[in-house]
Amino acid sequence: MTEFEKNVFNLVKKIPKGKVATYQILAKKLGNIKLARAVGNALPKNSHFIIIPCHRVVKTSGKVGNYVLGVAKKIKLLHNEGIRIKRGKIADLAKCLYYFN
DNA sequence: ATTATGACCGAAG
DNA sequence: GCTTCGGCCATAA
């Protein structure tokens, strides 16, 4: 597991239930906003070994994005946490975003 | 060292 | 809204 991946997961596991973060926000937190793509690249790698709320990471546009177990599963999990989703997008992204105090 | 790939993003049509 | 394209970066081969 690379250092970069560790950093990504350490951030993701901080996201509280009922909240979400975007790939871009995580990227910025890691030092460079352009890391967004690399972040999405790292998530699927260790999901089999480490328990982390990968489903709480969505796109900046508000669309849920992809998920190891399938988008349907991702939406289901988010919905269980009280997050409203409409046609594959977060109903009110601004209210759900977690900014890493 | 070089190339290709992907859970991304923004601009443009 | 949607699609297409170019640009990003870490990784794997």
Quick structural gist:
The protein is mainly alpha-helical and 101 residues long.
Secondary structure layout:
Blueprint: H1 3-12, E1 21-22, H2 23-29, H3 36-42, E2 57-58, H4 71-80, E3 85-86, E4 89-90, H5 93-96
Parallel strand pairs: 1-2
Antiparallel strand pairs: 3-4
The chain binds a DNA duplex (13 and 13 nucleotides) through helix 2, helix 3 and strand 2.
- Gyration radius (Cα, Å) is 12 Å
Runs in which pLDDT lies below 50 for 5 or more consecutive residues are: none
Quick one: CATH class? Mainly Alpha
Strand order of the largest sheet: 1-2
How much beta, percentage-wise? Answer: 5-15%
CATH fold-level assignment: Arc Repressor Mutant, subunit A
Largest sheet: 2 strands, parallel
- Count of alpha and pi helical runs: 5
Helical percentage: 25-40%
CATH architecture verdict: Orthogonal Bundle
* Anisotropy-based shape: globular
What number of structural domains do the residues give?
A: 1
Rounded mean pLDDT is 96
Textual characterization of the structure:
- The chain is mainly alpha-helical and 101 residues long.
- The chain has a single domain (3-96), classed as Arc Repressor Mutant, subunit A.
- 38% of the residues lie in helices and 8% in strands.
- It contains 5 helices and 4 strands.
- It has helices at residues 3-12, 23-29, 36-42, 71-80, 93-96; strands spanning 21-22, 57-58, 85-86, 89-90.
- The strands form 2 sheets. The protein has a two-stranded parallel sheet with strand order 1-2. Strands 3-4 form a two-stranded antiparallel ribbon.
- Helix 2 (23-29) packs across helix 3.
- The longest helix is centred in the first third of the chain and has 10 residues, at 3-12.
- The structure holds a DNA duplex (13 and 13 nucleotides).
